[in-house]
């Protein structure tokens, strides 16, 4: 699924670094579980205390370059070096 095809009100997991420190999103995970959650992370190492739940719309508002994210299947992830780099898909 492409992120732009997702329900904009669907929950997304990110970190306080992305929300509060404007950390660039460099890794995206599309979970395989029944909830099919999306996760968006910067380069920082994180703990559960750093996790935040927002909507897909909020994530796209924070970083509209995510609209260039290629299609990701459940259980796959995507990585890039920085906000201006191309995405690489991994299984």
Give a description of the structure:
The mean pLDDT is 94. A hairpin with a 7-residue loop joins strand 2 (27-30) and strand 3 (38-41). The chain is an alpha+beta fold and 91 residues long. The radius of gyration is 12 Å and the shape is globular. It has helices spanning 16-20, 56-62, and strands at residues 11-15, 27-30, 38-41, 51-55, 77-79, 88-90. 13% of the residues lie in helices and 26% in strands. The chain starts with 10 loop residues before the first strand and ends with a strand. It has a 6-stranded mixed sheet with strand order 4-1-3-2-5-6.
Secondary structure: number of strands: 6
Shape: globular
Strand content: 25-35%
Low-confidence stretches: none
Strand order of the largest sheet: 4-1-3-2-5-6
Sum up the structure in keywords.
single chain; about 90 residues; alpha+beta; 6-stranded mixed sheet; 2 helices; 6 strands; about 15% helix
Question: Can you describe this structure in just a few lines?
Answer:
This protein has helices at 16-20, 56-62, and strands at residues 11-15, 27-30, 38-41, 51-55, 77-79, 88-90. It is α+β, with helices and mostly antiparallel strands.
Q: How is the secondary structure organized here?
A:
Elements: E1 11-15, H1 16-20, E2 27-30, E3 38-41, E4 51-55, H2 56-62, E5 77-79, E6 88-90
Parallel strand pairs: 1-3
Antiparallel strand pairs: 1-4, 2-3, 2-5, 5-6
